[in-house]
Amino acid sequence: MRQAGRYLPEYRAIRAKHDFLTMCKTPELASEVTVQPIDIIKTDAAILFSDILVIPEAMGMRLDVIESKGPVFDEPIREVSQIENLQAENIVERLDYVMQAVKMTKEKLNNRVPLIGFSGSPWTLAAYMVEGKGSKNFEIIKSFIYNEPEAAHRLLQILADSVVGYLNAKIRAGCDAVQIFDTWASILSPTDFEEFSLRYIRYICENLETNGAPVIVFAKGVSSYKNLANLNCDALGVDWVRNIGNVRAEIGGAKALQGNLDPTILYAPKEKIRQETERVLQSYGRGAGHIFNLGHGITPKTPVANVQYFIECVKELSAKYHAEEVE
Ligand code: CP3
Fold first, then answer.
1. Are 264 and 310 within 8 A, CB to CB?
2. CA 197 to CA 8: how far, in whole Å?
3. Are the C-beta atoms of residues 129 and 139 closer than 8 Å to each other?
């Protein structure tokens, strides 16, 4: 997660010359930074360099990604009328630069590793569109869903339809798998998560034309995986707060699981990185269905050598868990 990012000097060298959105919109640059970590840290998959917020940007919302501040919409959605003015029609055409980046990345990867495409979930996208930026308490989006539930559902449905079109186009362009990020699942109670987030993720999963590409759903910070286990998807992401073995037991092996090392373990001494990697592997246990990953994105100050070491540890230590299928 965020493997193409600021912790890599090679990324920063390109970022120093271009703003973030220009990098997303220029297939040559987006594909170059997507491939960087494959050569440098040697992961088994590439994730397309882009951002979840290209969807609202393509709907006409002006987006700035400011160093140290993160993404900002200068005119967030504050009136119900703004929802009807979103340009959702033909959105995939306006996101064609992403499809070009997918195609160029596939050429550069030359089948060395698969390419993962992604989208934000409707709920997480709506949270940014209404708040205008990241937030601590998310009071604006939450008062919106409680005071204007109909308008909120209208916005979420518009986003869900856009995400379906967008991910289908990414799969057609060549992505080998797609992931739906619901980063802000964590701020909803279980009932509100079902009403304002999960039902739209379910709609997306039902309407994807995957052509065999696995679908991964990452809902960060949820307390239960039971309802996620019924989704028409292949894998579920797990953040580091849960014990991945408990999640496996909770869903009775219904889905593959992806996760879940705490990304800040990558600041620890080597012995600790190795020990914690082994702990996650042990927690999942033997057998297929574990995609080793971090529980969330790599943070900008992470030492590259530690990331390289972590990946060596995963490759070395996972063999004994996955070599034989003892189910
Ligand atoms: O390598 C990858 O993981 C692929 C690229 C990727 C980015 N953003 C690049 C990026 C992915 C998958 C995302 C998804 C994304 N973007 C999410 C969902 C996943 C998550 O991390 O929770 C969210 C919530 C966003 C919105 C967003 N974009 C935030 C919160 C930020 C600031 C992040 C920070 O660390 O400051 C961004 C900007 C962003 N997206 C950067 C990168 C590499 C840093 C931009 C820069 O170079 O200044």
1. no
2. 33
3. no
Distance CA 173, CA 107 (A): 12
Catalytic residues: 2, 6, 15, 51, 128
Query: Are 166 and 92 within 8 A, CB to CB?
Result: yes
The pLDDT of residue 68 is: 80
Residue 51 CA to ligand 1 centre (angstroms)? 6
pLDDT of residue 322: 79
pLDDT, tens digit (0-9, with 9 covering 90-100), for 246-286: 999 999 999 999 999 999 999 999 999 999 999 999 999 99
Q: From CA 252, how far away is CA 258, in angstroms rounded? A: 15
Bridge partners (DSSP) of residue 259 are 292
Q: Are 179 and 116 in contact (CB under 8 A)?
A: yes
> Which residues line ligand 1 at a C-beta cut-off of 6 Å?
1-6, 15, 20, 47, 49-53, 65, 67, 70-71, 118, 120, 134, 181, 183, 297
Is this structure's pTM higher than 0.85?
Answer: yes
pLDDT at 2: 86
